[in-house]
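Dear colleagues,

As part of the handover before I leave the project, I'm documenting each prediction I ran so the next person doesn't have to rerun anything. This entry is a single chain, and its sequence is reproduced below.
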Amino acid sequence: MAEIIGEISPFSVPNIRRFVAFRLFFNARFYYPVFTILFLDLGLSLSQFALLNTVWALTIVALEVPSGALADSIGRRRLLILSGCLMTVEMSLLALAPAGNPDLLFALLLANRFFSGAAEAAASGADEALAYDSLKDAELSDRWPRVLEVQMRIQSLGYVVVMIVGAAVYDPAFVGGVLGMIGWGGEIVPADTIRLPVYLTLIMAAATLGVTLRMEEAHRETSGSCGFSKACRSSFSAAFQMTISAGKWILRTPFALFTILTGLLFDHVIRMVVTLSSQYYRLIGFPEATFGLIGSGLALLGVFVPRLARALVYWKSARFNALLMFGITLIALYGMSLAVPWFGLLPVVLLFCVMIMMNFFVSHYLNEITESRQRATVLSFKGLSYNLAYGGIGVLYSLLVSVLGRAAGDAMPGAVPGSQDLAFVQSLMWFPYYFLVGFAALALVARKRKGGDRPPW
């Protein structure tokens, strides 16, 4: 993390080191590689699992912006401590939920998904706002791209470890083999290992809470158009006023508005494609046993791509960077639609690179122009818009696949598996056109909304 000799490292600021640690621990979810089968093995049905994920998503959407406004009004550190507490409760419920009582199991896992969504919402925006304002206090805000680069690289390496370890400790044969190597001769059954990834994540929750308790509140600007009194800033009514104020500021500031909208466009399209990745890998000839290795390999891109993104924010304009991402994404989406055996993995690699660059760019540009008094709220608006767009494209995609599936079924009567594959391939062909239309619409609106201190994309 050392900077060039003679320059002050941004990591000399304690809150920056704690921010990196918070992101690492909070996202170290060892159960992610076995997420679906963990819940099913505990005794849930697939429909119950889908319902729980819906509750999780709705919780984030409902609490995203209010939590950001609370962070700006009562303090980012308090929201991060709340996030650490919620994560600890969330993982404790998952660790203790009894597998033998279906009703109690579902109720506890429902609470688990709610607390998980609330923890995500509480952390969203608050961690970045606290870290950025800590850099401003130290007069090092120009080093934010360096912080993002290091944070993304460390988190990517952590994700690789989590993917490998989480899947390994869930496997009774692997755990039994390791224990056998150290002289333990007992038999290991699935019931012995089913919660090991959960216990590891519970340790990460405790580490997350410990890091947040050591954070210090950064100085925040409180003067401006809102004119909050000290008493008002510490109240829930201030959070509501902050939400309205930040929303108006985004709409009045073209560069902020189009930074969020551009990120939204790339995020919801690429996230939808990533959601379909396992089916796509199978389609282009990769066996299921390689999926974890592919995921780990893609995570390693986060070690290298942020360095390129940091160079681009220093040497190229926001418009250039947006057009670069647009060209790569369009090529990658078209390449996926061809579903070329084996080589079809290359477009997926390109999309992951774009996703990393997009997150880097949006964080840099948005933090750069946002006042500290409303930073967490603005970042929460970004998160809310991303999740709403992702939910919307999910609905559109399900309708598309339904229509294509019926058409394929009519064309291939009696061949249900074949018709499903055909519908999936046909659905991939729609993504380049959807993305192209979305980007063209965004560019058209941007031309009509130019103004402010800096031009939009």
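The chain has a mean pLDDT of 86. The two ends are 32 Å apart (CA to CA).

All the best with the project,
I.
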